[in-house]
Amino acid sequence: MTKSEPPILLTPGPLTTSRPTREAMLRDWGSRDEDFIAMNARIRRRLVALAGGEGTHVCVPVQGSGTFAVEATIGTLLPRDGKALVLINGAYGTRITRMCDIMGRAYVTLEMPEDEPPVPEDVARVLNADTGITHVIAVHCETTSGILNPIRELAQTVAAHDRALIIDSMSAFGALPFSLADSPADAIVASANKCLEGVPGMSFAIIREQALEQAEGNAPVLCFDLHDQWRAMEANGQWRFTPPTHVIAALDAALAQHEAEGGIAGREARYRRNCTVLIEGMTEMGFQPYLSANLQAPIIITFLTPSDPNFVFDRFYNLLRDRGIVIYPGKLTQANSFRMGCIGALDESHMRRALDAVRAVMGEMEVSSGAPEATL
Ligand SMILES: *Cc1c(COP(=O)(O)O)cnc(C)c1O
Fold first, then answer.
1. Which fold has domain 19-260?
2. Is 201 in the pocket of ligand 1 (CB under 6 A)?
3. Which among 85, 164, 306, 314 is least surrounded, fewest beta carbons within 10 Å?
4. Is the CB of residue 171 below 6 angstroms from any atom belonging to ligand 1?
5. Does domain 8-14+263-375 fall into CATH 3.20.20.150?
6. What is the pTM of this model?
């Protein structure tokens, strides 16, 4: 890799973006310009349509990374006397409980191992037993392991028990099939820089309008008050405080490319192909995915650490980075592992380049197989 060539980012974000998306940031925008206001309206409309929420839901964007929008959504929609059931099977679920702790919102948890999805029947049982629960908070794709949680079944269970659902769909939105039409939810939260392939700096929630109307005064702080953000935006089409103009322009371009690729189905097909090529190539070298194939979302893959004593993760990481491939250190609490993402403006040719680099690095480290302990 030459100094000027950007690396291939095989991470859960920020991700590799396309040239047109980056080029969209080459001009400045006045935040009160008519064109800029129209661009915001277009983005918000497109995002609501992607969620299948036309006529019922509105898009409320917020400055900041994905976590900012998750915290803003929970703080805005979960009333001070409400109570959440947080479904946990990874670090992002756990992070939600920290938000509730800090905001002083009551909650209970239903926790699963990192390689098991939450079971709708278990959720039903908890909701039947505790009538104080007002909201369920679920993660769509738990990026910690890359596991796909059964969001439609969970949504239907929560709706059948007459509770509200908030979905953290950060690493799934725009690439995995989802529609509010058959997965009822008060809010689905995502950011610009994951499967939509925009750049980091803004995130958003698609919120049921009636739930938002009732949320006035819930938020514990001004900046994360999505009711206030929404009212202001409805009034004049502008953001309350300085908008991330270049990030918004990049998202506008990224959404046009998403549509040209065939929308969610087109993006999903490319990511599935990336995922298959990556898993097949890594498996040929002996590596073993942490998740069984039926639970694996085509977003990020966790591989178990090889048992060969010559395999030292930091060295593996650095040697791959020297070859222009950036992977992600494991974040799992239960298994020694590392992760490789397969999302971003990348196709199977990039996956093959990454596999070539892994093969070369294995040779350099004198690691004969990627096989983990258990399979030897
Ligand atoms: C990426 C991600 C987030 C938000 O992370 P940020 O670093 O704040 O952008 C939240 N939830 C899930 C499931 C994610 O994958």
1. Aspartate Aminotransferase; domain 2 (3.40.640)
2. no
3. 314
4. yes
5. no
6. 0.96
